[in-house]
Design brief:
The protein is mostly helical. The chain has a single domain, classed as Orthogonal Bundle (Arc Repressor Mutant, subunit A), CATH 1.10.10. The radius of gyration is 19 Å and the shape is flat. 71% of the residues lie in helices and 6% in strands. The longest helix has 30 residues, at 14-43.
């Protein structure tokens, strides 16, 4: 089977998968920019930092946030947590602990990492966690890449 015969992203269109990841990472980036703008306005009162952000720092910030999201999702333990979160609408922390084998503290730290890059969300009042659209798309992307690797392996055998 030739490479052109293989269809990458066969389960969902790449624009939707990548779009969901990009929207999640961009949303997290926007949240961070709002916080930094507020801090800048409190410190200097000028708002100058935000005025120059899009032209000056956005490319670096977007790259950094994207790489952090990919790095976080690529960690095998974090990926397992994302897969567990993707199995339902909302997961109790206790259920995630049982499913992953992590205690509350290590699981909470890993969930915090996933939240920081926009791949998961926490519902503190109900002690639940949820996967975001970006997290689900990241799992989809990884699964599609794994499928492609297996198909390439078989095609090369």
């Amino acid at each position: 089977m030739a490479r052109s015969d293989l269809q990458l992203f066969s389960s969902s269109p790449p624009d939707r998968t990548l779009g969901n990841i990009a929207a999640g990472v961009a949303g997290r980036l926007r949240s961070l920019v709002v916080v930094l703008d507020r801090l800048d306005r409190l410190e200097s009162g000028s708002g100058e930092w935000l005025a120059g952000f899009a032209e000056g720092e956005l490319p670096e910030a977007a790259t950094t946030m994207t790489l952090r999201a990919l790095q976080t999702a690529a960690d095998p333990a974090n990926y397992a947590i994302l897969k567990a979160l993707g199995a339902g609408e909302s997961s109790k922390i206790g259920d995630l602990m049982a499913e992953t084998g992590y205690g509350r503290l290590p699981l909470t730290e890993r969930l915090n990492d996933l939240v920081q890059v926009g791949l998961a969300s926490r519902l503190i009042d109900t002690d639940h966690a949820q996967i975001t659209a970006a997290g689900a798309a990241m799992v989809d992307l990884i699964e599609q890449l794994v499928k492609q690797v297996m198909e390439e392996y078989v095609a090369g055998s």
